Amino acid sequence: MISRITYLRELRHELLHYKGDALKEFYYLESEDLRYKNEPGKWSIIEIFEHLNLTNQFYIQALSKALGKAEQAETDNFSHGWLGKKAIKMMRPNSEGNILKIPTLGKIDPRKYQKQGRVLVNQVVFQDFIDGLESLITLAEEMEPKAIDKKSIRTLVPFIRLSMGDALAFITAHTHRHIEQARQLANELQH
Fold first, then answer.
1. What one-character DSSP code corresponds to residue 38?
2. In this model, does residue 12 exceed pLDDT 80?
3. What is the largest CA-CA distance in the chain?
4. With contact defined as beta carbons under 8 Å apart, do 148 and 73 qualify?
């Protein structure tokens, strides 16, 4: 068991860090750099951030809805669920920065929407990303008094549910994963 409040504050700090990274490392890249693909069929940096937006939007809605129904916590303890712990570990890059390849669901694949006519405007994609992280940071703060290991939410895979605390850590790990993916692409541009 860990302290729920400390855990949520660490996740908030991590999300703030990724917000700063996005602004510092990617926001001011040239449009052609943001759209660079190292291989056909792979995502560009701007597509990575749009994928994060699509994913974050889903979890922000689910967590917001659950927050209103969550009970007040009786203690400061938090425990990860077995599935949550596995999902978070699978999502995070390993210690060498390697990322486990996981197929993307169609509803969060930015290419699907581009094929349907959506145009990715760099500034809009980044503003949506920043707004999404700010919403997640606010949710983490609002979750502090709640029993976040007791209330679960539906994930993007409908038959899988995670506790609110695990879901927030999962989406934070997902953000970490894709910030690293964007960094790898940006590093390729410099060589």
1. S
2. yes
3. 54
4. yes
